[in-house]
């Protein structure tokens, strides 16, 4: 027998989907008002409790806000909040390392298309400084340092895309690196730094295909180590 709590939770999920569909179909924009709880309850054929819970969930995600003077209205999208929620879900789930690797490759190769040909000397200077921070010492301490520098390099690279969605989802990099660290050997951290330099040279010459190839080779190193 299904408990009433599970039934109500199921209705809340349907309400969330219905509210999102309503927003899209009516082409609402940030600042536009939603109907009242009573009207939404009547429209969706569910209780006001389910409507209230659905609205609460969307407010938690930063999609909606309520004020006494205006009621419930659509907010500007905050990709940072959504990315943190997604990152937490991935961190505590059974998402495989291979899936993380595939997602990272898709995100970073997409960013390369936006980055190539648009990097300024200031961008190159910042990225080259991170490359220069890598050490050739194979001690455990320096491997850790190089690993952290590797992560900083890729975060900075995504940031230069200027695409807020890609930048927000850089949180996936943190999860990826935390899982990848035990798989990284001492020599790999040094090779990774060399690949960063090759990547910058390809971007400086506006060679997108070469940059993609270097990025794929760079990430394939993690796949091989995971096998």
Characterize the structure shown:
The protein is elongated and about 65 Å long. The chain has helices at 4-25, 37-44, 48-60, 79-92, 97-115, 121-132, 140-159, 164-168, 171-180, 186-204, 208-226, and strands spanning 64-67, 71-74. The chain has two domains: 4-74, Winged helix-like DNA-binding domain superfamily/Winged helix DNA-binding domain (Arc Repressor Mutant, subunit A, Orthogonal Bundle), CATH 1.10.10.10; 80-226, Four Helix Bundle (Hemerythrin (Met), subunit A). Helix content is 71%, strand content 4%. It has a two-stranded antiparallel sheet with strand order 1-2. It contains eleven helices and two strands; from the N terminus they run H-H-H-E-E-H-H-H-H-H-H-H-H. Helix 1 packs across helix 3, helix 2 packs across helix 3 (48-60) and helix 6 (121-132) packs antiparallel against helix 7. The chain is mainly α and 227 residues long.
Tell me briefly what this model is.
The protein is mainly α and 227 residues long. It contains eleven helices and two strands; from the N terminus they run H-H-H-E-E-H-H-H-H-H-H-H-H. It has helices at 4-25, 37-44, 48-60, 79-92, 97-115, 121-132, 140-159, 164-168, 171-180, 186-204, 208-226, and strands at 64-67, 71-74.
Task: List its salient traits.
mainly alpha; Arc Repressor Mutant, subunit A; single chain; disordered N terminus; 227 residues; Four Helix Bundle (Hemerythrin (Met), subunit A)
